[in-house]
Amino acid sequence: MLLDRFTGKKLKLVELPDEIISGRYQVEQSPVQYQRRYELAVGQLFLNEGSGRWCCDQASGSYFQSACSSVESDASTALNELLNETVSDVAIRFNDNGTYNFKSVSPLLPPTVLGRSEMQPLEILLLEIIKAGHLYEIAFRPKIELIQKEELVLTGRAKRLSNKAPEYLAAHSEDWQSRTLTGILPKRVITRLNEDNYDIYENRVFARLLDHLNIYLVNRLGEIEQLANIFDAALTYSLGGELYWKIGTNICSMWGQSFSDEELEHAASKSRSTIESLRFLLREVRRLRQSRLYQAIPQNVRISSQLKLTNVLAHDQHYRHLIRLWNTWLKTQECTELDQDEKIRIAQYRAQLYADYVQLLVYHALDAIRLNPNEPNATLVVEREGFDTTIKNKLGKITITPIFTDLNGVNLPIETHINTDGQRLIVSPLNPLQAGKIKPSEFMCPTFQYSVETITASPLELFSIENLAMALQRWYLKRLASRYGQKVEVGKSIVCSLNFHDSKVENGSLKLLAPLQSTWTNEFDQAVHQLTQNTGIRLAHDEVMLAKNNITSAHEDLLRLSQCQECGELNVNFAPREHDCVEVRCDCNATWGIYRQKDGSRTFKRIPSSIPSGNVHFGRYKDEFTI
């Protein structure tokens, strides 16, 4: 039995489609045999370990792959590794610090990436050898092997006869031109030819080394360009520009946990310098691959990782540098080829780390919208259920489901959301090639009209916290705003004796239109006491406490609705309107409220405290949605 993590439904193994999404299905009840040899325990996921296919008992199929060209696939190898390492680094530090100290761990790029912007040992060595001209000496003055072979040619073309020529002519009269008294005149003879052979072991090492360096430099260049884009974007957004000032401040504060301003500027500068060096090296390597020597070596020739130390490789003034480059390149590769079982275990471990990372992101996003679950008066409860993180309170429940794969182009189940406890938000990393290139204005906040919504987040994405904060704020406010104007269940005998400010009684029920004054509990107790004194009605204790708790709950909802997201102040500038609408204006000039539309529907709208000129991204500080 398997669990569909997108819908929460259980299904049998034979019910799986031919193409599945990596991480969508989880093992339930009993272990299953996976890929014919590995046993997936209960709670583990069906994950693509790199083969692109899955096989389980009698069922098999393929994994969904996001569309990308072959060039992008080659360039994304190092970026995927960068994504894995950054997620691992952040998640491990979060686990070490715990949920109560989540603020000490930034979910953005960790400080360990600073070293990646520097030139690596292989690149330094390659630059030194290319500038010294050793590789060009090999390419244009290579060691060759002289091959002597015999060939039957016309007499006019023969330059040096073979020792076998007389014997051949004696046995083959068809190759005689004519016969004389003194001998014969040959038409064709066996000649001895000398030929240069470039395809020797040392030159094969040279050719395959160029192939390895080309792949390495392409991947490395893509990685550094991605880091440079992120660093430059952080510097650009820290100076304002396209962002609302509050978002820029939040991002700078989060970046400050990992990098100082000087470190960030140095990393950006160093990345640009490294990019120029890598581009130079890549041009030189590709130029060497156009040489006659490289073209003379067959492409299907392979060289084992452990080179044979020939005299030429050991002592030649140029060829000996191939050994240095080869060994240094070898250190950048995996020491051993992992078997499939180990790849599956690593995939499970990385999925668990990404789930930890998403949990950290949830805590930061809730703290950004002033709903920190660790505070004493917190109204939200955050719990971890396997890989998922759940957020729940009296307003409803939302499940955050991390999927550690690119979901670009995937078809998600579309079901209208009607259950307050059935909302699910899927969080997945963006394709590393796109991370850092997506502008904040391109973010599409979930509408929460369907049971399954998606959002992207990873350490490579600058706006991960802001985007998730906007999504969770919309989910929370959508439920909070829908409760405005609802009737508060209070006993009929009690409701008539209450006289709260900004409240009214409709059909025997109490309706609160604004937060109550701080003395409302005393007013409530006095009203109940006065009711008992005047009428002689002795109210049951449970009835009084139920009414008081219901009023407290409605009052707390109004207090949360009155809190400004920009300055955090609780506002009493409530302006109730007809049809259960309201407008709240903060002293900082931010405005929000519930407004009635022409078609009779209600919408929640938030307007920031200041609206600068130009195309500015306001994020969660400017929002509008239908209640």
Structure, described:
The chain is α+β, with helices and mostly antiparallel strands. Helix content is 39%, strand content 18%. The chain is built from 15 helices and 24 strands. It has helices at 70-97, 121-132, 134-140, 165-171, 201-238, 245-255, 261-288, 292-296, 311-315, 320-331, 340-368, 464-482, 492-495, 520-535, 541-562, and strands at 2-4, 10-11, 19-20, 25-27, 32-34, 38-40, 53-56, 59-63, 145-154, 176-179, 184-186, 188-197, 381-385, 388-393, 396-402, 423-428, 452-456, 503-506, 509-512, 574-577, 581-585, 591-596, 602-607, 623-626. The strands form 8 sheets. Strands 13-14-15-16-17 form a 5-stranded mixed sheet. Strand 18 (503-506) and strand 19 (509-512) form a beta hairpin. Helix 2 (121-132) packs across helix 7. The protein is elongated and about 155 Å long. The mean pLDDT is 86.
Count of DSSP-assigned helices = 15
Helical content (DSSP H or I, runs of 4+): 25-40%
Instruction: Point out poorly predicted stretches.
Output: none
Shape: elongated
The fraction of residues assigned to DSSP E strands is: 15-25%
Give the class from helix and strand content and strand pairing: alpha+beta
> If you compute it from the alpha carbons, what radius of gyration comes out, rounded to the nearest whole angstrom?
37 Å
Straight-line N-to-C gap: 38 Å
Query: How many β-strand stretches?
Result: 24
Name the average pLDDT. Answer: 86
| Biggest sheet overview | 5 strands, mixed
Q: Give the neighbour order of strands across the main sheet.
A: 13-14-15-16-17
